[in-house]
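Step 1: inspect the first sequence and its C-alpha cells.
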Amino acid sequence: MTTWLHDTFPGREVNLAFARGLPAGVLFEGLREQNREPLAQGEADGWAWAVHDMINVAEDTDYEEVDYGRLCPQGAEVVVFVTEPCSAKAHGPHFAYYRDGRTTLFFSFEDYRQQRVGDNPDHLSAELFAAGVIGPAAECEEWKDGVHDCYEHEDADELRLVRTIADAFGLPSPPLAALPRDPSPLAVPPVATEPVGAVGEARPVVAPGTYAVHARGIDVTELAAACADAGYPARTQGESDGWAWVTWDAAAVRGGEVSQLAGFLTGFRYDERFGGPDRVETVFLSGTPACTCSNGRHYSVQHCEDHPFQFQNSRGGFERTYFNVGRGRETQRHGDLLVGELLAAGIIGRETPAYEADPGFNADGAVTMRIIADHFGLPATT
C-alpha cells in the first residue's frame, strides 16, 4: 500500500480522484453511477475528492476502469492517482489529469522519466524539472558500480513526485498525507539553461536528405569500418571536437536500419571490438521529414523503417532519448535528457507563447536541432 494517502484501506486497490470546477455532489454521484461508492470523500482548498475502489468489487466480472472524462465537463478538471494498478505484480501507481473531458496528461510512476502522454505530455514538465524528478539530474548513475540498488531510494523518489504534483495543483491534505520535503538522494540541482538565441554556427548539423551518426569514444576510422562491415559504407566521414561522424544519402539506405546500428555500436555487440563496455556514445540525426504514417504520427513509437526518429541518443546499447522535431513533435518523445533546454526555448511546456506569437516557429525543427548540437557539442557534417 502506498504511503502517501492520509488513510489506509487494507485489502483494497483504490483510486484517489480530485475534481474542481463542478459541485462535489456531482463527482460523488458520478462515481456511484459507475458503481464506485466513495470509501472516503470531502472538500478542501477548492477541490472535491473521493477515494474509491479501482474496480467494481460488487461484480466479479466487471473490470472496466472508471471513465473520468464523463466526470469532467467543459470548464472542469479532474486529477487521479491510481495507487495500485496491479498489486499482484507490484506495478507502480498511475497519474492522470483531465481537463474539459480530455486526457491532458497521463503517466506511470514506473517510467515517467521516459514517457508521458496525453494532449500535452509536458503540462507539468517545468515543475517536475525544477524539482529534479525529471531531466539529467534525476537519473541515478550509481547502479553502474554493481553494488548500488536503486530500489533503496524508490520510495523517496515516489514521495517527491507526489509532492511535486500536489504542489503544482494545490491538492489538499487530507486525503493526501503530510508529505515530507526531504532532499533527493540524487541531490543534484537541475542544470540552468539559457533560452536559445544567438548561436555561433549557422550551418545545419545534418544536411537535408542525409542520415548522420556522430560517435565519441572511438575514432573515425573505427566508426567508418564498423559501419562498412555492417553493410553501410559511409558517403562522407570526418572527425572534430571529440566526435567522429559518418553520413549516408537517405535515398541509398533505410533510416530505421541505420539508427538501429547507431544504438548497436554502443552496446555489447561491439564491446570486444571497441575495447570494453560503455565506451561509445552515439547521436543519430536525420535530415529527412518526420514520419506522417497515420498510426505513427503522434506517438514515440517508430512505425516504419523508412522514417526513423530524427534524433536519437544511445549509450550502453540503449536509446536513452529519441524524438522527432518541429511543430511541437518534441512533446511526443522518449526520455528527458534535453527537457531543460526545450522548456527554456519555449518548444515544450504548459505555456508555449512562441507558437502563439509565430505559428511558423520552429516549423522545420531547426531550433531543436541547434539545441541538440549545442547540448552534445556536435560538429556540423555539412
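Step 2: inspect the second sequence and its C-alpha cells, then contrast the two.
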Amino acid sequence: MELSARALSELPGVRRQISRIAADLAAGIHCLWLLPDNLVEGGYAEELHHVALCAAPDRLDIPARSESETSSVPLLGAVPEQTGWALDDVPLLEDYDDGFDLGWEPVLPCRRSAPRLTDVPEAPDSGLFARLAKELSVPPGAAVDTLVDPDRRWRPVIGVRAWEESAAGAASGDPGQERGREVVRLIRSLNAAAKQAGLPPENRPRLLVTARADDLPPRFPDELELDLATSAVHWWWGTVDRLDSATVVSAVAADVSRDTRRRGEIPRDRILRAVRDEVVSEVCGPDPVLGWRLARRWDGSQGTLEDSLRACLDGMRAVPPEPLTVLSGVGSGHRPATGLRPAWARGLLQAWDGRSRVHPVVWCGDRSRSDHLKILVSQAQARVLLPWIEEARRRVALRALSAATRPVAELIDRYVERPPAGYRTRAQEVVHTIEVGPLLRACRQGHLNLPVEDRRLLEQLVLARNVLSHRGVLFDRTLYTLCDELAQADQRWTGDM
C-alpha cells in the first residue's frame, strides 16, 4: 500500500503551493509547475495537475495524444510493411523460354523502395495546437485567435501536461516534438496574441503547464521567469515541509494502531510513539512517499531502523557516480540552483524546513556516511525529549526548596552558574533555574534531600541530556528507562496537585 495521490495533494504545504498557483492564474498569469520525475512516474503528477486546474472556475484541459494518433506516424527510420517484390516491375513470363533469341536485355525484378519519411503525411489531429482547436470546436490553426477574440467572454485556464507531450513527441519520432517545442510555442503565441488584441491581464486566457525539467528546453524556465508580467514558474522545491511529513506519519500511525491502541494511552507509550514518529519524519524529510513506507514498516526499535529504511528504498534509482555536494543555504531559495537541478529532477535533492536535504537513497548503506542516520535520529530524539526533560527539571527544582538542607542562597552560590545580579533578594525564584546536573550533584553531596524516585529520575535526565547534547543517540534500553521514569514522575506529580 502506497501513499495515495489524493493524500499527497491534500497536504498543507502542497495546498499552499496550489493556492499560490491559483492566485497567479486568477491574476491572468501563465503558470509553469515543475515537478520531480518521481512524481510523474508514480502517478502523482496527474492528480496534482487536476487539483491545481480545478481551482480555476473556467478551465479547459487538453487531452493527451491518443495511442491511435501516435501510432499513425511511423517511427524514425522505420520501413513500411510493403517490402516485397513489386508486381509492376516483374515480367509476366519471367522464366519462360520459347527458343527464340530476340536480343532483349534480361529484365530482373526489383524491390519496391520504402517511401521517405518526408513524404509521410503527419497525423492531422495529433499536435498540441490541433487538439486545442478540437476542444474549442474551431478549425485547426484558429485556436489562438479564438482564445484572444475580444468578442468572446470565455477566458479559460488551459491545462497542459508537458510530460504527455514529451512522450508523444518521442513516440512519433519527430525531433521537433522533443523537449516541449509545441508547449513553448503555445505560451509565446498566446502572450503575443493577447498583447496584440489589447486584452487586460485579468481577461486573458491563461496556461497551466505541469512539467518535468526534461520536458522543456533547459533554459526556458529561467527565461519565462524573467517575464514577470505574464508568467510565473513554480518549483516543487520546499513544497513539503516538516508539518507535511508529520501529517503523513501521524496518519499512518492512526491507521495502523486504530484497532490496537488502548483508550487512555499511558504517558510512556505516548512519548515513545512521539519519538518514533519524529524519527521517521526527520529521516525521510521531504519525501512523503518514503515516510509513508517507513512509518508502516518500522517497529520503533533502533536496531531495526537501518534495515527497514533499506527495504523501503529498494527499487529506487541508483545514486549517480559523481558525489553530490550541497552548499549551505541553497535550500532557502524558491528554486534549485542550476547545477543542482539534475539531482533535484531525480529526487535526490530537495529543500525541507528551510534547508537542503539529500535523499536517504544517496547515503543509506554508504560506509563513508555511516553517521548520517545517527545524526538525524539524534535530532529527532532531541526535538521530542528535550521539552520533557526541561519540564521534569523544572518540577524537581520546585521540590528542591522544601528538600534543601542548606540555605537557599548557599545553594545558588554553589549550583547556579552565573546567577543574576541581586539574586539574594529573590533567591527562591533563582533556585528554580538550577540545571539537572547541579541538582543531581547537590543530592549526592547531601545538600538536597530528595526522594529516591526523584534522584533516579535526575540520573536519567542527566544521562539523556548529555547524550543528546553531544549528538548521540538514546538506544532502546536507555530510551525505555527514561520514558518509564518520566511517566512515573508524571503520575506522582499529578497526584500531588
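Step 3: confirm your contrast with the notes below.
DSSP finds 22 helices and seven strands in the chain. Residues 70-96, 109-125 have pLDDT under 50 and may be disordered.
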